[in-house]
Amino acid sequence: MIEPLVRKKQRASKIYSLLKRIYPYSKYYLYYTSPHELLVANLLSDHCTRERVNIVSKKLFNKYDSLIDFAYCNIDSLVEDIHSTGNQNEKAEKIKQACLIIVEQYSGVVPCSIDDLLNLPGVGKQIAKCIMSEIYNIPTIVIDTRMVRIMKLLGLTRSNDPKKIESDIMGAFEKKVWLKLSHLINDHGRAVCVERRPHCRACVINQLCPSSYV
């Protein structure tokens, strides 16, 4: 039975309110203090845990104090500095080249349009959307694997097509909560709605989830 859009929006609103109550300090999971640091942290996160990235990033950002430091760095030194994140040679090259492009083509300002961001080495749609929302407050939703899994469990999308999934989620939730929603879902997916065995009995939104076994 297809849930009417009005009821889906009402349920989505309740889900958001409950998650926000449980995770009041929810925020983006990678450490950064500036736009270019967010870019670098995301480039480091490919096939690497957030814990490892945050450990490496904090030391890295103390050594490379600015965008220019990354743009004109010694590539061998950067490779060594990030080696524990894996695939360090490719990551170092992407970081250096992306920062160099920003310095030389964008006057040292991380661009805000998705087209410009996608032209940077290593930047895919999800990283671009992350920068747009985190740095420039442009409403968007990061559709990662955790978001897709939990939204399907909640019955807020049934599609396997990324564009349709994004459309379904944006249609269910108010635009003003899109950014915060991404953080809340990430936290909830790590703490309660874990992939292998969701803790449905401990879940604050289990009564609103059609997949709950409670």
Structure description:
This protein is mostly helical. The protein is built from eleven helices and no strands. The mean pLDDT is 95.
Please summarize what this structure is.
The protein has 214 residues and is an all-alpha fold. The protein contains 11 helices and no strands.
The top level CATH class name of the largest domain? Mainly Alpha
- How many strands in all? 0
Residue runs with pLDDT of under 50 for 5 or more positions: none
Task: Give the fraction of residues assigned to helices.
Answer: 55-70%
Could you tell me the radius of gyration in angstroms? Answer: 19 Å
Percent in strands: under 5%
Proper CATH architecture of the largest domain? Orthogonal Bundle
Shape: elongated
Quote the CATH topology of the largest domain: Endonuclease III, domain 1
Fourth-tier CATH superfamily name of the largest domain: Hypothetical protein, domain 2
- Residue-averaged pLDDT: 95
Q: What number of domains?
A: 2
Q: Helical segment tally?
A: 11
Give the structural class: mainly alpha
Mind summarizing the main beta sheet? none
Question: H/E series, N to C?
Answer: HHHHHHHHHHH
End-to-end Cα distance, whole Å, is 21 Å
